[in-house]
Amino acid sequence: MSTNNTIVMVPARMASTRLPGKPLADIAGLPMIVQVMRRAEEADVGRVIVATDTQQVADVVKAHGGEAVMTREDHISGSDRIWEALEKIDPEEKVDTIVNVQGDLPTIDKNAIRASLVPLENEDVALSTLITEITEDDERANPNVVKMVGTHSAKNCFRALYFTRATAPYGDGPLYHHIGLYAWRRSALKRFVALPPSPLELREKLEQLRALEDGMRLDAAIVDTVPLGVDTPADLERARALLSGK
Hints:
Elements: E1 6-12, E2 26-27, E3 30-31, H1 32-43, E4 47-52, H2 55-63, E5 68-70, H3 78-89, E6 97-100, H4 110-115, E7 127-133, H5 137-140, E8 147-154, E9 157-164, E10 176-185, H6 186-193, H7 199-204, H8 208-213, E11 218-222, H9 233-244
Parallel strand pairs: 1-4, 1-6, 4-5, 7-11
Antiparallel strand pairs: 2-3, 6-10, 7-10, 8-9, 8-10, 9-11
């Protein structure tokens, strides 16, 4: 399934406020960043590269047979970090599709990574992401659970119209939980990182709204499960239990 013009980028930074040094936290015998790298390798959609601002992370990745690219420390988002790394490794612009897998998703399913590329089969789609139907009542009103508001565009795919921390859309029907993994056309990523943060992005604190406000088409593929994002010590313990089979 691997293609020469698609790569998977995993941005990783050490300066987490809630869980400092989390890329190197041990999970089932491997640093978290290596666990994420392994999931990306299992997806087999293209070359996997970790983009990091810390030499220690790069050294660990390379020691486990991976590829790492050093980036600046001052990036405000993972999108900016992977763009710098992309320009370094592919100045001839041979790569045209970039999958951005966050470095704190050690339980991400390989099939979810693959699913993120499906919406890009439509040439009108600039970038794509993932969603899953909300099944827990407490998640419907939880502002930490980002909701996608959209309309069906193809089988198991939606065209995203908005993302919000509010409970939306109103009325009867399913709600969809957004999963922060993106597949970008190179041209869309280049356009995105050149834009200033948008008003709704700043208000909702959701980076993907910058793309929508600029008129980019963003479609979302439906997957079955939400990967565990490791942001706190409690999340780390859950990830350890999941990946150790306990």
